[in-house]
Amino acid sequence: MLKNNWLVCKDIDRLSEQLAYDILEISKISICLKNSFSIVLTGGRSIIKLYKILRSSTSDWSKWHIYLTDERCLPVGDKDRNDNIINKIWLNNHQILEKNIHFIHAELGVSEGAIHYEKILNGIGDFDVVLLSMGEDGHAASLFPGSVYSNKDVVVENNSLKYPKKRISMSYSRLNRSKNILKIVCGSLKQGAIDLWLNGEVIPINKINGKNEKVYICKNSLTKD
After folding, report:
1. Do 59 and 21 touch, CB atoms closer than 8 A?
2. HEC sequence for 6-39
3. What is the pLDDT of residues 125-135, one digit of tens each?
4. How far apart are CA 218 and CA 92, in angstroms?
5. For the CA atoms of 29, 129, 53, 100, what is the dihedral angle to 10 degrees?
6. Rounded Cα gap, residues 73 and 105, in angstroms
7. For 27-36, how does the pLDDT look when each residue is reduced to its tens digit (9 = 90+)?
8. Average pLDDT over all residues of the chain
């Protein structure tokens, strides 16, 4: 049985529309209260439609501060980097100020890139929104089942089962410093991880909850009646 904070959407279009609406509403409140809004973006295919909707939406974009859950250690401009996809779909030539976009310099390698992002996050308070998309194995950001990570704000993955092996990610503890964790589950191959999640098994996606959590799930992800 799904939890009360799980919203089932008929398809990715409806999910993305609802998610965009909720993010924009949170941004309005945040900007009204403290004159800024911070959001941590995620990669993955299921999030692309959301970014397209936000690109065409209206907000006080000068008050937005953008961060990234994780990045793959690949050259700048590589098609498989999260920032490349996000920039191409949304942020290139957008009204969000370049100085307010705080991405991970994974091209520096895991060690140097992690140190650099630690410095960027130093002194930053709780995020207003963290977006997480779940992998088929229940991973979130670049935090994978069975791996042990430090409690630093930024951690590294040297042997990911998914390409590429080397990645840089915000840690569980840093992602949990968020007012709103918004999780996206979409795809027919996610049922196994969903079952583990609902049965109380500890997997990466359910180790990140923040102060408030909401799960947006496509109907096709629920392959069981």
Report:
1. no
2. EEEECCHHHHHHHHHHHHHHHHHHHHHHHCCEEE
3. 999 999 999 99
4. 28
5. 90
6. 8
7. 999 999 999 9
8. 96
